[in-house]
Each structure stands twice: as structure tokens, then as C-alpha cells.
From TrEMBL:
It comes from Adineta steineri. This is Rab-GAP TBC domain-containing protein. Keywords: GTPase activation. InterPro entries: Rab-GAP-TBC_dom (IPR000195), Rab-GAP_TBC_sf (IPR035969). The lineage of its organism: Eukaryota, Metazoa, Spiralia, Gnathifera, Rotifera. GO terms for molecular function: GTPase activator activity.
Length: 324
């Protein structure tokens, strides 16, 4: 009885929220913002809430992201002037280079722990976003940052998928040291728990996803899950979506940047969020993706077709195109 009541509350409270998320995702592709003023003459941020609203309502250009993402990922404070930012950048480079030299020296001495870690990271880095020309040229930077992060942040230990969240940051920030500190901020404030071996946080996301998806679209939920008896099998297709904030579900890199910045505004950027709210936006993105292909999914006559849709690279690319 209690679970039924809880289910109805989710159903009533989140259907409109999900609709708003879907409308927001649709509106964000291809819409350029006007030159709304965000900064004072000295380079300090005029208003934190205005920045959040600006990013939420308008698609950012590449140059705009280079200005706004340092705030979005909490490496610049609103009061910092252009002069303060230059000081920060210089100090960040000095500090980062010191951190990097430690593991580079250990590798040069043949330390087995660092060699094994380097091999693991290098293999993942070469696989990550290899269809993006810019990223293909930045493999050394990606490797350096992931090694430095993994050495100084051993919990959770490095695992596959972490490098996925680094490529958008390097693409926008370009600078290696700034990218490192932006990545540290993203992971420590928001994503570390998702990669924890106890899997408490990712299981929490999976639970919320199933609860909300079942409530919002029961017919589609049944179509996907009806023949999947095991809980692990039920959640396998959406596990990657929830772990990586749907980063691999969009083919155009600009779309990836847009979806991530919307998610981060509703998670990393907020100072008052709970774990519950932290997960919601990503969950609604997942549901929106499924809703985009609703008729296609419902038309599948057997489980094999569903499996191809969720797991084959060909159907994945088709799904990417349908979200533009």
C-alpha cells in the first residue's frame, strides 16, 4: 500500500517536470543566444543566478563556454576579476606540473603500480571519442590528466568511463592545467560516488529511473522490460546512460556539450542539491531519449529487435540522429 501511494505521488509530481525537460532538450539544439551581458568591466561575474539562467535558456557558443564553464564547474568564484583569473591560471599551472612530475618520475624508475595504472588509462584514452578530430590530437593531455587525477584521488579507483567525462572539459578549456582542476571539481562534487565500487549511488539512480519511467510511460516501460526477468538484465541498457549522464547517447559533440551543461547546472552548479535532485535531470534526459523513439520501440515485435536497438552501434547512431 505504501509503495503504491509513493508510486502515485511520483506519477503526479513528475509528469509535468519531465515534459518541461523534454521541451528544454528540444529547444536547446540549434538556438543561439543573444549577447546577454554576464560580466562587469573588470571581468567579475555580475550575477550567479543570471549566468545559470543564461546557460539554461540559450545554447552557448564555443567562446561563451570558455567563459562560462569555469564558473559552471566551480573553478572561478564570481568575484574574480580578469587579473585574479590570470593569477589563478599561473598558480594552477605551477601546482599541476608539480603533481604531474611525481608520477612521471615513478614511471621512469619502473614503479610497477604506476606502470599498470598507466597502461590501463592509456588503453581507455585511445578508445574515448576517437571519432572527434580535436580529441584525437589531445590524447597525451587526456592521459596526463587522468594519470594525475587517479594518483591523487585513489578513491574510487580508476575505472572505465572516467575518461569519457574528461573529453568535453579538455575540448572547452584546452589548457591542460585548467582542464585538470575543472575535472577534479566535476568528479569530487558530483560524479565520484557514481564510480564507487559499492554502487550505492548508481543503484539509487537506477531505482529512481525505473520508478519514474514506469510512472510516466507505463506502456513503453512494459514493452522494454516485460520479458527481462533478471533485475541486472533490466537495468543493463540504461546503466551506461545514468553513469555517464547520457554522454555517449548523442553523436554530435556540440549536442553532448549542450546536454552536459544543462545537467551540470542542475547538479554541480547548485550549492543546495540533494542526491535525489542530483539524479533527476539525467533521469529525465534518459526518458526523453526513449520517448523520442517511442513509436519505433513499440513497433518491435520481438526481444531481439529491442536488443539491437539498445546495444548495436548502428542503432545507437540512428538514435543519436533522432534527438537532434
Amino acid at each position: 500500500m505504501h509503495s503504491e501511494l509513493k508510486h502515485k505521488q511520483y506519477h503526479h509530481g513528475h509528469r509535468q517536470i519531465w515534459k518541461n525537460i523534454k521541451d528544454l532538450l528540444k529547444s536547446c539544439f540549434g538556438f543561439r543566444s543573444n549577447n546577454n551581458r554576464l560580466f562587469n568591466k573588470d571581468g567579475s561575474l555580475i550575477d550567479r543566478n543570471h549566468l545559470q539562467t543564461n546557460i539554461s535558456n540559450h545554447k552557448q557558443s564555443y567562446k561563451q563556454r570558455q567563459q562560462t564553464w569555469p564558473y559552471l564547474l566551480n573553478i572561478y568564484s564570481p568575484s574574480m576579476t580578469n587579473y585574479d583569473k590570470k593569477i589563478y591560471q599561473n598558480q594552477a599551472q605551477i601546482r599541476y606540473n608539480k603533481l604531474k612530475r611525481v608520477w612521471q618520475e615513478r614511471i621512469s624508475r619502473g614503479d610497477q603500480f604506476y606502470l599498470v595504472l598507466a597502461d590501463k588509462i592509456l588503453r581507455d584514452v585511445h578508445r574515448t571519442d576517437r571519432h572527434i578530430k580535436f580529441i584525437k590530437k589531445k590524447k597525451q593531455i587526456l592521459f596526463n590528466i587522468m594519470m594525475t587525477y587517479s594518483v591523487y584521488h585513489p578513491y574510487p579507483c580508476y575505472s572505465q568511463g572516467m575518461s569519457d567525462m574528461l573529453t568535453p572539459i579538455v575540448y572547452v578549456f584546452i589548457d591542460e592545467s585548467l582542464s585538470y582542476f575543472a575535472y577534479c571539481s566535476l568528479m569530487t562534487r558530483y560524479m565520484n560516488l557514481l564510480f564507487d565500487q559499492d554502487q550505492i549511488e548508481i543503484n539509487h539512480r537506477l531505482y529512481l529511473f525505473n520508478l519514474l519511467f514506469h510512472s510516466i510511460d507505463n506502456e513503453l516501460w512494459k514493452k522494454i522490460y516485460f520479458n527481462q526477468k533478471e533485475e541486472e538484465e533490466k537495468n543493463l541498457f540504461v546503466y551506461r546512460w545514468l553513469l555517464l549522464d547520457c554522454k555517449r547517447e548523442f553523436y554530435r559533440f556540440d549536442d553532448i556539450l549542450r546536454v552536459l551543461e544543462l545537467i551540470w547546472i542542475n547538479s554541480v552548479y547548485s550549492l543546495t542539491i540533494t542526491n535525489y535532485n542530483q539524479s533527476l535531470f539525467t533521469i529525465f534526459v534518459c526518458i526523453s531519449i526513449l520517448q523520442e523513439d517511442r513509436m519505433k520501440i513499440l513497433s518491435y515485435s520481438n526481444e531481439e529487435d529491442l536488443h539491437k536497438y539498445f546495444y548495436s552501434s548502428l542503432s545507437s547512431k540512428s538514435r543519436h540522429r533522432s534527438t537532434k
